[in-house]
Amino acid sequence: MSIIDTIKKMLGLSPDYTAFDTDILFFINSAIMDLSQLGVCSPNFQITEDGNEKWDDLLSESSSNGLLNGAQKFIYIKTRLVFDPPNSGYVTSALQKELDETTWRLRVQVDGESK
To answer: Rounded to a whole number, what is the largest CA-CA distance in the chain?
Structure first.
């Protein structure tokens, strides 16, 4: 499944529903930029307008070491918070805490691999 289709599904949207694809692509690419600054993926990677990029394209050499799951969660939460923010401050706070922990864990894993 493509990255955009996965994130759309997690947001509760059908992969066939394309009305918000431009917005979602923008937020996904923004999250990917953050991941590249953390050293998780290549700074040259981005989702194109056709949206055919797969998760293996994002982290081809790192997908087997646990970074893939963290990257998926990171991109989903970042996209969710800006595309479809929760009505409840409690839920927003919980998502932000989860994002902070995921960011920390990704950083630790990347730092551990570079040693």
So the answer is: 44
pLDDT band with cut points at 50, 70 and 90 for residue 113: confident
Closest among 42, 46, 56, 2 to 26, alpha carbons compared: 46
Residue 30 burial (CB < 10 Å; 0-12/13-18/19+)? middle
- What total of structural domains would you count in the chain? 1
Global pTM? 0.92
- Annotate 76-109 with DSSP letters as a single string: HHHHHHHHS--S-HHHHHHHHHHHHHHHHHHHHH
Within 8 A by CB and 6+ apart from 86, the residues are 92, 95
Domain of residue 102, residue span = 3-113
